[in-house]
Design brief:
- This is EAL domain-containing protein.
- Helices cover 49% and strands 19% of the residues.
- Strand 2 and strand 3 form a beta hairpin.
- The chain binds ligand C2E and magnesium ion (3 copies).
- One magnesium ion binds next to strand 6.
Length: 291
């Protein structure tokens, strides 16, 4: 679990400080225009229920192909968008794209629940629930087809307010997941009163769980604790085949990781899904994991 504590701003050390500063300025000043100019797209990563071998969920992940800088990882520009006050624009764009995609899939007969990541700042935007409701209505998408993910860290910035806002989302019928669980200094007292449906165990605990006894303990305990509180459990970042059986035996509900698929463009995702569900419907209790 050492990886959980590593500084994400590693890039600052790799590039020189000036170069890094220039890059950040460029990212901040190009973000809004880039959104309008079609430099962004969403990718979708399957979330597979390992108890039933069925995939009905996906997480939407934003991608930015910058004309000069090339691919910019979301971890980098989301943080800058948060600091520069542009995150609201990004989130509205993501929500709009995700709902349009859900509607599109529904027209093709694919009933999926798509999760969108929101930032701490979004949760303090009192207009957001109404905006989302309007979007859903406009595209005739039921609220149960949308989920939101908020990190444990975002919740802990202002737990009282965030709990109230998450309750509003839940009341609308939108599922709520707590993301990157285990990395955000949350207290157990809050976990018990959070209006969430799902806990996502952070990848840093998952990646070594087969080899590191401490991580094994953390994963097992988190599953037990979450189930005890009535939440579904998703393991993020499973890369190895062995991880599937391991987590299934321990009662974990869902896996999201490269072992099934990396994030995919919308049309690749629906191809993957069709192949996966076909391969698994013929023998529903077999341990198939790849199409
Ligand atoms: P996250 O929400 O925890 O998303 C999971 C990240 O883990 C994604 O990285 C995904 O590609 C990666 N991942 C999934 N399975 C595996 C695996 O098996 N191995 C490895 N090594 N990685 C795996 P990505 O897409 O780079 O996103 C990073 C973070 O950026 C996200 O973490 C989320 O916090 C943020 N992010 C991405 N899209 C959005 C967005 O639309 N809005 C906001 N606010 N944040 C976003
Ligand atoms: Mg997420
Ligand atoms: Mg996560
Ligand atoms: Mg993350």
């Amino acid at each position: 679990a050492k990886a959980c504590l590593e500084n994400k701003a590693l890039a600052t050390y790799l590039a020189g400080e000036d170069e890094q500063y220039q890059r950040e300025l460029t990212i901040i000043s190009d973000l809004t225009a880039g959104l309008a100019q079609g430099q962004f797209h969403l990718e979708f990563q399957p979330k597979v229920n390992i108890q039933t071998n069925v995939c009905r969920d996906a997480e939407a992940l934003i991608r930015w192909q910058h004309p000069d800088l090339g691919f910019i990882p979301p971890d980098e520009f989301i943080r800058l968008a948060e600091h520069s006050g542009n995150i609201g624009l990004v989130s509205e764009w993501v929500l709009q794209q995700a709902v349009v995609q859900i509607a599109d899939w529904r027209k093709q007969g694919l009933e999926l629940k798509v999760a969108v990541n929101l930032s701490a700042h979004d949760l303090l935007n009192l207009q957001l629930p109404t905006l989302i409701q309007d979007l859903l209505q406009q595209h005739q998408v039921p609220a149960r087809a949308l989920a939101i993910e908020v990190t444990e860290g975002a919740v802990m910035k202002d737990p009282q307010t965030v709990i109230a806002v998450l309750q509003v989302f839940k009341n609308l019928g939108i599922s709520v997941a707590i993301d990157d669980f285990g990395t955000g200094q949350s207290s157990l007292a809050y976990l018990k009163v959070l209006p969430v449906n799902e806990v996502k165990i952070d990848r840093c605990f998952i990646q070594d769980m087969l080899y590191n006894q401490n991580d094994t303990m953390i994963v097992e305990t988190t599953i037990a604790l979450s189930h005890g509180l009535g939440y579904s459990v998703t393991a993020e970042g499973v890369e190895e085949q062995e991880g599937i059986a391991y987590l299934r035996e321990r009662g974990c509900d869902v896996i999201q990781g490269y072992v099934y698929s990396k994030p995919l463009k919308a049309n690749e995702f629906s191809n993957w899904l069709q192949a996966f569900n076909q391969a698994n419907s013929s023998a529903p209790n077999e341990n198939h994991s790849k199409p």
